[in-house]
Request: fold
Amino acid sequence: EAGVAQSPRYKIIEKRQSVAFWCNPISGHATLYWYQQILGQGPKLLIQFQNNGVVDDSQLPKDRFSAERLKGVDSTLKIQPAKLEDSAVYLCASSFRARGYEQYFGPGTRLTVT
Amino acid sequence: QQQVKQSPQSLIVQKGGISIINCAYENTAFDYFPWYQQFPGKGPALLIAIRPDVSEKKEGRFTISFNKSAKQFSLHIMDSQPGDSATYFCAALSGGYQKVTFGTGTKLQVIP
Reply:
């Protein structure tokens, strides 16, 4: 079974630039999550999709972050404009609808904002 | 904001010893408690999970102990091995959409 795919793996940008991350979840997983993991901390949920609808985006900085899930499969997370404090690993995860405790994570994208 | 407090921040254990990581929560709406293991450069992976109506769950060398009245739960790794060296996160789920709140993580190092 293929795992959660993410790209790019690494990205370095200057502050005020924009960046986009891509995620392809495990086939059949209705729920998709984007997390931000700052070095030395636990993952923080940014947004959760059920199919292609948003069910939780309470911690998403909506003035600069946006996300969409195309046709209930792939998803993109965008930051525009980036700030220094956005430097982190951005993790995508997916799960079956009723098994939110069993999330499968991708390898993450390490973002450095200079 | 819902929180899950985790301790210790780091832990060094000798090979063959027992590693113990503790977590505490306040929100009684949490209804499922998984533990995740994360190796450097990788995403977290589910290790073991427990429901609040169960006091203990064991899978191989890994055991979760759950104290509902104290709102605390812990992970015990028996016969710890160098390959167990990783960061461990406790977590808690709540709500119909099963939102996951992660603890702050414990970096475990098992020395030979």
Observations:
- The mean pLDDT of chain A is 94.
- The radius of gyration of chain A is 13 Å.
